Amino acid sequence: MSDPGTSSAGTVPSRAQVWLGRTARALSGLAVVGLVVVVVVAGARFPGEGTDAVPPTEIPVPPTASTLVCAGPLIQPDDTGRGDSAFDPTPVEPVTTVTVVTSVPDRDGSSATTVAPLDRSAVTATLPGGGSAAVVPDVTGPQVVRAEPGTAPARVAAASAGLVTAGDLRGLAAASCQQPTADAWLLGGATDLTSTAQLVLSNAGSTPAEVTLAIWGPSGPVDLTGERFLVAPGAQRVVVLGGIAAEQRRLALHVSATGGRVGAHVQDSAIDGFTPAGTELVVPGAAPARRQVVPGLAVVDSTVGDLSAPALRLLAPGDTGTTASVTLLGPSGVTELPGAGAVALVPGEVTDVPLGGLPAGAYTAVVDADQPVLASAVLTRPGSVGELDDVPSVERAWAASTAVGRSGVVAVPSGTRGTLVAGAVATGTDPAEGRPATATLRLLGADGSVLAERRLRLDAGSTGAWSVDQLATGSGDLAVTELGSGPSVPAGVVGVDLVTDEDAETAIAWALVAEADRPDGVLVSVLDPVPVPRTTPDVAVREDPRLGTR
């Protein structure tokens, strides 16, 4: 009989021998796994002989079409059904035109531009490829400009202009047509007893857009109870701001769209008793940033305390207040204005900084802060006293903040004279300390041809202003002091194309000031340039032979 402590195969292994065997088997398994991993990684890194010999292929990314949305005729306050009864119907109908201009320096002729109503139900005008221009008269609704690209992105601009010569809506309401957006910041307008503000939303896309609003006033954010606005494809919607944000002497808006992109502007109208005090379109400006630049401040003489003097509008939309440093770059450099240098901003409260007493001339406002802010400016032109008025009429124009150093095109509204206002803003801490700024300027004629090409040079911290017709008939490089104030020579300029020097130490911020002379005073608007789309770089593509396709 066998011993219970033994087996038929021999002596039972000890505990140490059992663990040693298990450890050996585990290590051998790990070695196998490690070898598999090495083989897989090596195969991934070195897929096979000849792979590195396959050269990458540069696939060009074609430029996309450019779409602009143009405002339609001015909206009568009573036409909305909820207008302010203090406004009377205008005794004359607004005259609305759309001016379109394209600039193609290489004139490849492969691009074309069409103008159509917002719903694309017809074609209002067609511009051939290459440089061209057109004026669409008697516009009855918002328009869409679509420019097909050639070998490069289309350089296109359009301007909508509504002219009213008498009545409560007297004024020139002109603005550059906009690229549709899902995010827009507008700083301007009011809804107090003397003012009417209407937000106009235009959807040129093929899908509905749902729009939400945020509004700020002089006392902080306005409670809108989460109201949303649906804008159908090819349609326009008007929101009377007095109905949702009443009694606001100063306004700022943030428009957010989902599902589609929209064009947005505010029609701002004011009266002084029964005397017109200006009608203008407030257009989107730059998003909140620690530096804002407002070009195109062409001001006339005014006095300190004058209620109709120009003003700078500021807002810190976040939860933290800040002190904004305001620098005014004038014809001879930095211009000091008492009370406008440092402005304390309470978070969420819209603040106006009066510019009364500023010497007549052209300026660029630079606003710096340690928190993101918004900025815009309102210009004024005094008129005469009418037969039934007790005070002179006033014309107003809103200037939005813009990006500096971007190339762009601006159309000169039909029936106006244009003045180019350009400021040289250094990109460092001090906007007036830097090298001179340079750019190439093209003046475009009624047939789209380049009437003249100039080199523009501005000293850092200065602002220059020139009649576009003078620019077209001048010669040589242009410095801020070169073209005097002599009589202009009509040259039929319908567009200005400015090509900036990218990544320069000192950048140019510019706008077009359009004016129309009337017997009772000068009407004015400020138009921002339409930025030129950036060229998309080519994409490098390499064939992977492991996929088995060619």
CA-atom Rg in angstroms: 31 Å
Mean pLDDT: 84
Low-confidence stretches: 1-12, 35-51, 79-84, 480-490
Count of helical stretches: 3
The biggest beta sheet reads:
8 strands, antiparallel
Structural class: mainly beta
The total of beta strands comes to 36
Strand content: 35-45%
In angstroms, what separates the terminal alpha carbons?
78 Å
Described by the principal axes of the CA atoms, the overall outline is globular
Helix content: under 10%
Commentary on this structure:
- The strands form 8 sheets. Strands 19, 20, 21, 22, 23, 24, 25 and 26 form an 8-stranded antiparallel sheet that branches. Strands 10, 12, 13, 14 and 16 form a 5-stranded antiparallel sheet that branches. The chain has a 5-stranded antiparallel sheet with strand order 30-29-32-27-35.
- The chain is mainly β and 550 residues long.
- It has helices spanning 15-45, 241-244, 468-473, and strands spanning 57-59, 66-70, 95-102, 113-117, 125-127, 132-136, 143-147, 156-164, 171-176, 183-187, 195-203, 209-217, 220-222, 228-231, 235-240, 252-258, 263-272, 275-282, 289-299, 311-315, 322-330, 333-335, 342-345, 351-354, 361-382, 394-400, 408-411, 417-426, 437-444, 450-458, 463-467, 495-500, 506-518, 521-527, 530-531, 539-541.
- The protein is globular and about 75 Å long.
- It contains 3 helices and 36 strands.
- The protein is 7% helix and 44% strand.
